[in-house]
Structure formats: structure tokens, C-alpha cells
Amino acid sequence: MGKIFMLAPDSFKESMTAKEVCEAMEIGIKRAIPDAECIHVPMADGGEGTVQSLVDATGGTLIQKEVTGPLGTPVLAHYGILGDGKTGVIEMASASGIHHVTKETRNPLITTTIGTGELIKDCIEKGITNIILGIGGSATNDGGAGMAKALGYKFLDKQGIELQLLGGGNLLELDRIDSSDVLPQLKNINILVASDVTNPLCGERGASVVFGPQKGATPEMVTVLDENLRHYSNIIKQQLGIDIVDVPGAGGAGGLGGGLIAFTNATMKKGIEIVIEYTGLKEKLKNVDYCFTGEGGIDFQTKFGKAPYGVAKAAKSVNGSMKVIALAGYVGKDVETLYDEGFDAIFGIVPGAADINTLLAQGKENVARTSESIARLLK
Q: In 36-65, which positions are buried (b, 16+ CB within 10 angstroms) versus exposed (e)?
């Protein structure tokens, strides 16, 4: 009987989706071991590629929808419905990400998470009861106020006038939160927030100070944004009885983490843990002989919650003697520290010097060739 291989890589950014990496790995393995059984479980860590990986791993569906982008103009976003038909998976960046703004138009005083809220609303209206929400790659610093507005919350100033397109710059005008028109189904929806960020909402480690500059904030803007988020959190505490200012992870995606805690039934969890749970990876690892994982770049940072690290830990927890082998386009600094974290071998796939565009284009054949070489050794 042929050996059983678990193929559980992350995507190789700009080169292959996680599903395509699985397919390339299998091609290579079967050149060496034709009767090998290959189980594909495309992985992600909660960031870019999570929707695609979970849809691919569960036989789900991708949905496209036009929503309000971070600058208030329409953008085409997407989300997934998993194979169970009850779970939606959203990357906030699809609607409100930094790729929707240019260097010239980046401005966290005005960028908004309304589009992310519109994706959540669309999920709910399709009968989804559980939502996985990845919150990396945002262009925003609005504390999730835009997201909440899309779900029916009204943010009013001292005159009782509703604040319009909500960005981080006008939160200081907030006087009252009106929840009378909130989507009634929202209270029955569970949202699992995939985030590896532990930053609080405000202060030196908060959303504005740490992440604001990469979204276009000047030092003066950072001060304004931090003050505004503190005011916003005070209003939330007074009127909703929820204190979000120092919650670990509240500062994720410009405070969207905090907004989700305040306005929805949200809990936070490491992205890779969510993906392992929803793909049923541990169950599928039973009776497996070898586990192949990988991503575009592997280095010492991989052990801080990246997908291959989660896969290695899961494999060893199921069978301590299972061999875990990682493939990467780039093998970086202090990679040897990973050998104490469940990895048995790490292989670079690049065959020789070439420009980056050529290497990205040749990703599949390089993964297949490297997988074949490893399988011949295992054989």
C-alpha cells in the first residue's frame, strides 16, 4: 500500500494559491511514488489568501459584491461561503484594504470600514450564522465605526445629526450611539476574528501610533487619530457598557478589532488556529505518514503564528514521529530555530539565480521538482 502524504501549504504570494501548491506537490510526489495517496488541505494564517484557502479546503463558494471602498467609492470585493453552507469567511482587506488606496490617496482621517460591514450584512442576509473575519491589511483607522454603520448603528453628534462617511478624523464629534435600527439578526451571529495582532486600541502600542504611519498618517495625524479613538472608546464604554480601550487585539485593522467586540458577538483567535479548526486538519492527519507544508518565505518569524508553524504543531500533536517537511521560495534568517518547533526538514525550491518575475512564474514546476526529490529520498 502506498504512503499517505498530507499536503497543507499556505499560498506562495504572487505565485500560487495554496490549492495550486498542493497540486504541484502531488505531481512531484507521484513522479517518485506513483501509488502515493495525497490529501490536500490548503492552509492560511488569517491574512491574505484565507478566504480562498478555506473555500478550496471545504468545497465552498466565492461570492463577489460591489461595496463601499475605504475612500467612499465603489470597489468589487469578495468573500466565501464554506462547504457547510452556514459559515462565511471574509477578509476585511477585500473591501477596506490598503491596496484600494494609492500613496497619494492614503488618509486614515477619512478611510472607512463601511465596505467590511456591507460584506458582513450580505452574509447575514444569505442566512449565514457564523462568520470568520480576517482583519489584516487595512487602509483604515476608524475603530470599526464604518462597519457598525453598515449594520445599522447610527453615530450622532451633539445636535443629534448623524455623522456621515465615518473615518478616524470625525470620531471626536461623536456624542451618542443609536442602536434602534441595527440589523435584528446581528445578535444571533457569531463572529470569529482572525488576528495575530495583540495591540490595544489606544496609546503607544495602539492602532494609530503603531499602524497609522503605514496608512499615510503624519505625526500630527497620529495624535489626532489616537485622541479620537480614545473619545470613541469612552462613548462606547458610557453607552454600551463595554470597555475596549485596552483589550488585546482591539487595535487590529485601525481599531476594527475593538469595534467588532463593541458592536457584534465577536471573539478573537489566532488565524492559523481558526483555519486548522475549520479545515479539520487534525482529523485528516490521522494515519498520515508524511506532512508537507510551506509558504513563499520561511524564516525565524514563521514560528510566530504563520501557517507552516501551525501545521507542524498540529502534525506532531497527532503523531510525534510524523515527518514534517517545509518548502519555500525563500529560506531566510535563523531558519534553524524551526527545527525545535516541529519541522524535520526545510527546502528552498529555487533551482538557481533568476529574476523574481521568472521565479514567480516557475513556482509550480519548482515545487513539483523539489517535492519529487524529497519523495525519492523518502522512498
A: bbbbbbbbbbbbbbbbbbbbbbbebeebeb
